[in-house]
Amino acid sequence: MKSFRTWNIGRIRQNLIQMLAMGRTFVLLMGLSIVFFILLGIGGLAEQSLNTSPVSSMKGLAASLSSRFFVDMVGMEIPHLDKGKKEASTFSGQHMTNFVFQLLTNVNPSDPKSLLAREVPGLAANNAVLLRNGSGNKDADAPQDYHPDSSKQIEIPNEATTPPESSDPPSTSEDHGTRPITDKVVMIYHSHPQESYNPLLGTLGDNPSTAAFDKNVGIVGTKVSKELEKKGLGALHTLADYASSVQGYNYNFSYKYSKATVKAAMTQNKDLKYFIDIHRDSAHYKKTTNVINGVSYAKLFFIIGYANPNWRKNEAFATAIHERIEKKYPGISRGIWGKTSAQGNGEYNQSFSPNSVLIEVGGIDNTQEELDRTSKILADTIAEVYWSQQKANKVDTSPKKESKNKKIAPKDTVPAEEAVPGT
């Protein structure tokens, strides 16, 4: 008997229609995806050319990811990479939940103020934006600003101990001690010169009214400037105290006062090209201190004022310092942050030079010993960046061949304009 195969024409037609519908949907989705990525690319190019603020930049998002994130990601394919790791994975439930929540809502779960800032007008006016995170800031905590209350009196604690000379870390850059010190090329100043460290307030001596300023953040500037000169860099350190010298002093005009100081210094010192405004963070000891090989160090914040249209150049300068410190002393840098405004000056005086940056050294509880160690590292690194830039910018001074048509003066003849009387 012959077997006959029956065909269900209706079912075949139905399946064919379904396949065509799926194909049409697939083509439509593919086309929409292509258009989406084209628009995304155009938007990125437009952002690079039109927007000078890093707030909406993907760089801010990438910076919020720690280096550990990428190590863990590669470790998913290379198991031995994670061997011996003591830290919790960045793909843990807590880390991923916090990251996704902050990405979607712009609210940091570990910082309740970020929630209030969305609802209270003016509270988010000076929010810091993360540009490049540091290994010393795993929770991506922003710098904490402090506005002094003149009605409160500071209590002086018991006397703090003075660190031994051996507490200094080893040099982090080539020693230029044999090189003659340059003219004043680096300026160290303080827009908030009365920011203090609690442990240092106990070393004021017999006359606190005259010695208080010497034990404020200025002591860090003094250490940095001295270490810079050991590396061959002439440093100008100003201890201008605006609260006691400016009539009608207003804390909100701090950066206007320091701007006048910087302009005056530039007028008197034509070689000044590097400007470091040293501050102190208002966070407590746990967040502002790191222990490396049993030795404690004050941590650092780098602040960029992006009301300055050329803020990217200042960020590049800060990055050069940050990356060198990250490599040699991981855990000291708390990253590079951008701010939208400051007291009367949203650029933090950084438009004077691309080699300008505001650096916060330690917090209110750091000791002089910890500050000195970090100050030396900071000075060594700034010197390293300076000398590397000088090497890169060095002009070829070799004698050039004279033109054939140009008359050459006799060897024993000195041009009149170069002649020196008495020679």
UniProtKB/TrEMBL annotation:
InterPro entries: Spore_II_P (IPR010897). Residues 161-172 have a biased composition (Low complexity). Residues 134-178, 391-423 are annotated as: Disordered. Residues 138-152, 393-402 have a biased composition (Basic and acidic residues). Pfam families: SpoIIP (PF07454). Keywords: Membrane, Transmembrane, Transmembrane helix. The chain crosses the membrane at residues 21-46. This is Stage II sporulation protein P. It comes from Paenibacillus shirakamiensis. The lineage of its organism: Bacteria, Bacillati, Bacillota, Bacilli, Bacillales.
